[in-house]
Design a protein that fits this description.
two-stranded antiparallel sheet; mainly alpha
Length: 544
């Protein structure tokens, strides 16, 4: 019965699609959360509307920063470009949410196929995949548009698993090329792909069931040797600063690795979220994570592995563990002085490692009928939790309100919650949230600048100048603070100081167009044609 309903003629794709739409369809009407999606999508519509930019996306960092960025994921940006081509003016974000659901369904189907290729019984593989499909911890990946970075990355990784297994079975040129392209696709989707050779080595171990140190075939080595330089130099070129004298941001630095060791304890509570989705939050810091579910999970899984040690496939257990530990690179923090928050979308692929381990333990224990009943119960329980929790991503107020509620010591969350009030013109509550943020972290990025802007609008110019100057002191690259300081000086009649602020701004951020407009207006008023010509040339140079 099961095989006829679920497996025959690949019917599982229709099951995954139907259930995916049923559970995640509510997100189709969601607005932006103002957590990166406003910068990546709303403020980037001109770039995204030009379909030819699917190629130019490989030339810039995700946010197209002129000072050099951190994230280089052009294939993810390409999916946004595709969505923009068929968006509706009445519901501008609908197409992006449609794609998020389809990506999740596709990743789930690939995961199901991989489980079967690893000799997990079809029933166990199906239940594991269905639970993954509706799992609450995936809400940030599916319901938050920019969370798709992890579903796109996971799809390429799973395709690379299929490709290397196909090549191992039939080492043809065609299969070798497919493996190379899948591996390269993963690299251009997320930086975590640098660890894939280790995973692919273990995948081959799982397939052969022989010693792990049996080396891959020569074409696999060639694929690694060729793909890494292509990605590395493309990334270096995209992230280089266009501002003379300013270094590009780097992810892999000694500073970042020191933050990694500070954040590594978060592994335990993140593991707990996979099995006990409690205390879910879009942004949470280490001190606010719940620990007991993770500790309990480690104890139970450890005991199960020991008890079934003679029956389980150790290569699969190692692969599942290695997949879960791909969470670790996300603990690197480019700015250790700021609040280090954790995002649940980063658990998307690592969670598959835990599902793989559990599926193998259940296979070894031969309790398929009991697993069917328990799996059905978990499926419906998680579905209910997901339907409720994904409402968190409905809009900016829901997103950041939940973040402050569940992570009350996160200065970053309170800053962004204040920004939501400011955009709604509720200046009183905006000030309240921003002052709370400063109580938690007096030098939190952007908060002093935000308060400076608020006081500027309220006409408290001296107070505004104090906060804006302090923001620039602690965060000299913050463009909006310099722009607003110029507006402050303009309002005070200190035109020369305003011009100095805007001049400095375009030196640091050559694409800040409103600063050019202010400067052009000033130099036209004083008749400085040389300055006007110079500004126009600079504007054209950095126009994209």
């Amino acid at each position: 019965m099961f095989e006829r309903l679920f497996l025959k003629k690949n019917r599982y794709w229709f099951w995954f699609l139907g259930i995916g739409i049923l559970i995640w369809g509510i997100s189709l009407g969601f607005d932006l959360t103002f957590s990166d999606d406003n910068a990546l999508i709303r403020d980037n519509q001109v770039f995204l509307h030009n379909f030819q930019n699917i190629f130019r996306a490989f030339l810039y960092d995700d946010f197209q920063r002129s000072m050099g960025g951190v994230y280089y994921r052009p294939l993810v940006i390409n999916t946004l470009i595709w969505d923009t081509q068929w968006q509706f003016s009445a519901h501008p974000w609908l197409t992006y949410h449609v794609t998020n659901i389809l990506l999740h369904v596709f990743a789930t189907g690939l995961f199901f196929q991989i489980l079967k290729r690893f000799r997990i019984p079809a029933l166990g593989a199906a239940i594991a995949a269905l639970i993954f499909l509706v799992h609450p911890v995936n809400a940030q990946t599916v319901a938050w548009i920019t969370g798709r970075v992890d579903s796109v990355f996971t799809i390429w990784v799973l395709l690379s698993f299929h490709a290397i297994l196909n090549f191992q079975k039939n080492p043809t040129t065609k299969n070798g090329i497919w493996y190379f392209l899948a591996f390269l696709g993963a690299l251009f989707s997320k930086e975590t792909a640098v660890v894939l050779p280790v995973l692919h080595w273990i995948v081959l171990w799982v397939d052969r069931q022989k010693k792990i140190f049996h080396p891959p075939k020569l074409p696999v080595w060639i694929a690694w040797i060729v793909a890494f330089p292509i990605w590395f130099f493309a990334r270096e070129n995209a992230l280089q600063s266009e501002v003379v004298g300013v270094e590009s941001s780097k992810i892999f630095t000694a500073q970042n690795f020191s933050s990694f060791f500070e954040n590594i304890p978060a592994t335990i509570p993140h593991l707990g979220k996979i099995f006990f989705p409690l205390g879910l939050s879009p942004h949470v810091i280490l001190s606010d994570l719940i620990w007991w579910p993770g500790i309990f999970t480690v104890s139970v899984l450890g005991a199960a592995v020991i008890f079934l040690r003679k029956k389980i496939s150790w290569p699969i257990i190692f692969l599942g563990g290695a997949i879960f530990l791909t969470l670790w690179p996300t603990f690197l923090n480019p700015d250790p002085d700021q609040s280090k928050f954790f995002l649940e979308n980063r658990l998307y692929f690592p969670a598959m490692g835990m599902f793989l381990i559990v599926a193998e333990l259940l296979r070894a224990s031969k309790i398929s009928k009991k697993f069917l009943v328990a799996g059905a119960g978990i499926f419906f329980l998680f579905s209910g939790i997901t339907l409720a929790y994904q409402q968190t991503f409905r809009d900016g107020f829901s997103y950041w309100g939940t973040a402050t509620e569940l992570s009350p010591t996160s200065a970053f969350a309170f800053n962004n919650f204040g920004a939501m009030y400011y955009l709604a013109n509720d200046l009183e509550n905006a000030e309240k949230e921003w002052l709370r943020s400063l109580e938690l972290h007096p030098t939190e990025n952007m908060v002093n600048g935000n308060l400076g802007l608020l006081y500027l609008h309220q006409g408290e110019l001296e107070k505004s100048e104090k906060y804006l100057l302090f923001e620039i002191e602690i965060n000299p690259a913050y463009d909006h603070a310099r722009h607003n300081l110029g507006l402050l000086y303009e309002k005070q009649g200190k035109i020369k100081k305003a011009v100095e602020s805007w001049e400095k701004l375009i030196m640091l951020h050559p694409r800040y167009w409103t600063a050019y407009k202010k400067l052009l207006k000033y130099y036209e008023s004083v008749g400085d044609t040389a300055k006007i010509e110079k500004l126009q040339q600079r504007f054209q140079k950095f126009l994209r």
